[in-house]
Gram-positive cocci surface proteins LPxTG domain-containing protein (Enterococcus canintestini), 527 residues
Amino acid sequence: MEIVNRVLSRFIMCAIVIANIIFSAICPIAAYAAENITHNVWMDSNNQIVVKPINGGEIIDGFCIDLDKVISGANSENNALKYEELQRDNSQNLFDLIVLSEAKLNRLPYKTPGEIFNYIKGVYYYGIIEGYTYKQIQDAIWEFTNGLYSNASFYAGNKKSEEGKYLYQKAIANPLNSDQLAQVHVRIFKYIRGRATPTQNVIHIDIDQPDVLKEKDIVISKVNLGGEEIAGAKIQINQGNKEVASWTSEAGKNHELSLLPGDYVFHEEAAPKGYVVVTDITFTVNTDGTVTVKDANGNKVAAANNQLTVTDETEYVNPTGTLRTTVKADNITASTTKAAEVTAGRAVAGIEVIDTIIYEGLVPEKVYSVTGELYEVKEDQVVGTAKATATKEFTVSKEGKGEWQLAFGQVTGLEAGKTYVVYETATSKEDLVDKNKDNTPEEKHVVEHKNPGDKAQTVVVTPAVPKEKDMSEPANRVRSSSNKNLSNSNTSLPKTGEKNNDALIIIGILVLLGMFVILAYKKKKYR
């Protein structure tokens, strides 16, 4: 009897189960209503998820969000699985469905509901905008939600697409901004019943279709520091690695072009002569047609309304400059054809030396330190150290040319029969030379005049000339010696010359006396 009761009990239980199954098949809506069933879900012939409201309405696609689970045995609406739609765009609802354990959460690159939610949005956004397939988008979602962040075997073992892996990596590396996130909406469907095996939860994603972008008319000006449009600048407009426009600037004329909203790079391939090439400038064309500068990169650039104005700085030109000198020694001025000559006697006592410097091409109104050096010249080369030096600071005229005078003072020690030359060096007090071509001077401007053969800067000390007194002494000694020899000689020479002279003197005296007597007599007679 006991055996009969057990068999009967089992039969009754089976009958109840069978009755429930039959009733569920006949009246599915009534059976699931208490569980808030809202949608039927099945796989179509393309192996894509189909989601349809149980009371009829729009059919939408869906994506699985749990790789560990499956959707099986549901290949039409007749044998569809039953799902409940949860609150739309609720990140916590999605988080609760896919993060079932702390261990799984630890494998995910993002940890919070908001981060995970935004990643799912990013996958779909990039997938739709860039034309990925349904499968590639599904693979990218699975790669994340299954927590296989760095596991290459996920693709090798499950035959997933490389495009899906790339899309996954892009969504990780380039999170959506707030405007993009606002365009993406997530509908969440929770599995309720239909199969005994672990079954996927499902999401559907809508994206607000952005307005079709239209090109905006913008103006680009290439000007000098005076604001004048300049000619000869070779310009490119690039977006990423792509050149979207290029032209050569014209004098007095800006350039008009049309660009889609987005970021661009202003690249100057070559600057006009006399100007410096600007470094790359990043600017943005906004959806309202205005232009903004994103990165000036150290350049002078301005944006106003739809116009971008880029200023070329004038290329820094290094000064050259020349010096010419004319020396004056002991008030004797040299010339290009004749050196200043001073006597040895004057040189011994010391002479005043003044060098007149004529300069051209120096930087206007800048201060230069001028140093003069007086050297001995031998065989067209200076020898030894400077015999005299002088240094003084001068300010260049507004015209960059003019004349300075450098006084050496009283110079001594110049030797007879020697030649001397003045060397001049002018050195700027400020850095005025751009040596490394970065348009910024970093060295002093140095100008020299050093020519040992230049007569205009040469002083010659003439040899000493013997005095007259010194020249007569040897003659007197000779004459004295001759007279002495004559007086000691026994030879008697005739003295006719001396006697004749005495006679003439006597005769003259007598004539004078005679005339005096005659005059006296005549005077007495007339009385």
